[in-house]
């Protein structure tokens, strides 16, 4: 499904995360990997070339976001990026909850540990990495200041926030992360699960902070 110019969403089938493809270059999260063939079919169906993906960026280490890494890596040889704080988990499978999702972990070569404030550029977009710990230690959001787009992983959904009761989770950190997001001007929210959101995003963040505090 086309979300914006050169941004497509291939939505989470079952427990899989949403998968976003930007400029046919940057893939945000890879889902569980169980419906990989179907997702590849959908990418091709949208007129895109999956083999041209250059970067696989994981918003955090949970298996429902990284399970397809090895499959996309094999097809594309793209580089895998994620926060420096979730990198080890993504490489080793530790704290990814792959058993909970009923899958065997397959390791992929990890390429780049991201730090707060780094910029990831594609043909038409420039995303800033914002470290937003809380759901996991290494949860990150990506913000496009010119286009006012936030890709939020499991930090923020269209009507709720990510859980903080799993390993690496911390509610106080999540509140502080939401306060960071509150300062941004956001017109389009692309979360890790569920629907995208177009209006009232700053109001949503405010309500979530009030709810948690
Ligand atoms: Zn998660």
Describe the structure.
By secondary structure, the chain is an alpha/beta fold. Helices cover 24% and strands 23% of the residues. It has a single domain (2-212), classed as 4-Layer Sandwich (Metallo-beta-lactamase, Chain A). It is built from six helices and twelve strands. Residues 60, 62, 135, 154, 162 line the site of zinc ion.
> How would you classify the helix and strand content by structural class?
alpha/beta
**Beta-strand proportion:** 15-25%
**Which fold name fills CATH's third level, the topology?**
Metallo-beta-lactamase, Chain A
For the termini, the CA-CA separation is 36 Å
Short recap of the structure:
The chain has helices spanning 36-45, 63-66, 69-76, 87-92, 171-182, 201-212, and strands at 2-4, 7-10, 19-22, 26-28, 55-57, 79-83, 112-114, 119-121, 126-131, 140-144, 149-153, 188-191.
Q: What is the secondary structure topology, with strand pairs?
A:
Elements: E1 2-4, E2 7-10, E3 19-22, E4 26-28, H1 36-45, E5 55-57, H2 63-66, H3 69-76, E6 79-83, H4 87-92, E7 112-114, E8 119-121, E9 126-131, E10 140-144, E11 149-153, H5 171-182, E12 188-191, H6 201-212
Parallel strand pairs: 4-5, 5-6, 6-7, 11-12
Antiparallel strand pairs: 1-2, 2-3, 3-4, 8-9, 9-10, 10-11
Residues 60, 62, 135, 154, 162 line the site of zinc ion.
